[in-house]
Amino acid sequence: MKFENAVLTGACGGLGQALARRLIAGGSRVALVGLQRDSLAALAAAAPERCAIYTPDVSDGMAMAAMAADWTARAGTPDLVIANAGVAGGFDTAQGEDLAVLRRMLEINLLGVAATFSPFLAAMRAGGRPGALVGVASVAGWRGLPGNGAYCASKAGLIAYLQSLRAELRPTALRVHTVSPGYLRTALTAGNRFAMPGLLEPDDAARRLLAGVAAGREHIVLPRRTGWLARALGLLPAPLHDRILLAQPRKPRAGEPGATDIPGLRR
What we know:
Blueprint: E1 5-9, H1 14-25, E2 29-33, H2 37-44, E3 51-54, H3 61-75, E4 80-83, H4 98-127, E5 131-136, H5 149-168, E6 174-181, H6 202-214, E7 219-222, H7 224-234, H8 238-246
Parallel strand pairs: 1-2, 1-4, 2-3, 4-5, 5-6, 6-7
Helix pairs in contact: 1-6, 3-4, 4-5
């Protein structure tokens, strides 16, 4: 299945760049949404007549609505919207400054997905044509992990939100896809000090994601074996499960060596 018109957030890095390259190479018109204009320009250079660059904060509903209006005027209503923008980082409830991390992570990882879908939804539904809304969640949203409460909460909330949206859109030609990556070799995992089983290259993940969407799979786990491992761990008694994970190094918190940047964070 070829997508004619795609909107992609988080297009600057890792999985987003790989998705952008594949969509552009496949002939799609692509709205490239991210915060690094130079990175987006390098992607758009492959097909400037089919791409447009946007740099809003995905949690800003008004900015996202303006992006959607401009893209729709240029290219028409999309048949694929991928809400891929996301941030990650360690979290410690005992540290008061980390409450800002939780707030910002929820804004980007959860609110940002709804703000991405919202301005396109009415037109996509009214068109009556098949379309796909893709939210990139995480295996980390399946169960809370020590030292990762903000990220797990944001992705668990996203999974529940996508379930609700999917139910609402059942009577329409639109399909909602929940993507749950495990570990991808991106900037978000570069600082991890713990084992990352099933580590996947971004281009491989992008290929599998788009194939899963084209095949109509509502739940896409990347890679599947990581999902099986997470499910198997989830069968353990909770105290044992937690003891195993507590023995692992924690993800770096904002400001610590190896931590990834969280745009717009004010601590």
